[in-house]
Amino acid sequence: MHPCGTNSAVPGAVQPIARNLRRWRMTREMTLSALAEQAGVAKSTVSLIERGQGNPSIDTVWALAAALGVPFASLFHDEPPAHDVTVVRADDASLVAIDQAGLETDGLIIRHLLTRTGGALIEIYTLTLDEGAVRHAGAHVAGLFEHLTIVAGTVEISTDAFTEVVSEGDLISFRADRPHTYRVIEGPVRFVSVHEYPKDSSS
């Protein structure tokens, strides 16, 4: 399961997801059936989402993005124009993990700060995990590295290859193309997550 759990996508994001999912599927020259099989979801689900009639979970959006080999946020947002300077205020960052009622829930808040594709493809998020929270994340696209800087609290990060405890001020970088787990030791935990995609994911 991805770190967002099974929370629904943000209200108002259904149409952008529908538009961008179809655009990327056409770009990748994938049929509905092929995308559904690759993502591990029902073909009918993909079809509903593309028609703007579905209410996909964050897990489903992660799976579709991974199957397409595109950044997660690219299914929520159209490609932004390039600027020499970009400022994202904390309160303006796009919230991508909320419940049906529109409230942050389940011990996790994720906000998308930035996606840049001009050079190396990166995405930046802030995450907040409540005291005692445990989140199991599925594998991201092959070759993706995750770089976490801990702003507050203490969290254990583990995969099948390592287990590390990191605290305020620490940085951890690891291959996130395998299942990984975040376990809060002292919370709430706040951290900045940078997803660094392999070069062939930006095309």
What is the topology?
Elements lengths: L13 H14 L4 H8 L3 H8 L7 H11 L25 E2 L12 E9 L5 E8 L4 E4 L7 E14 L4 E5 L3 E5 L4 E17 L7
Antiparallel strand pairs: 1-2, 2-3, 3-8, 4-8, 5-6, 5-7, 5-8
Helix pairs in contact: 1-4, 2-3, 2-4
Number of domains: 2
Name of the CATH homologous superfamily of the largest domain: Jelly Rolls
SSE succession? HHHHEEEEEEEE
Counted beta strands: 8
Count of helix runs: 4
Cα(first) to Cα(last) distance is 26 Å
Radius of gyration from CA coordinates: 16 Å
Dominant shape: globular
β-strand percent reads 25-35%
SSE-based structural type: alpha+beta
User: Main beta sheet, described?
Assistant: 8 strands, antiparallel
CATH topology of the largest domain: Jelly Rolls
Q: Identify low-pLDDT runs.
A: 1-8, 98-105
What is the CATH C level class of the largest domain, in words? Mainly Beta
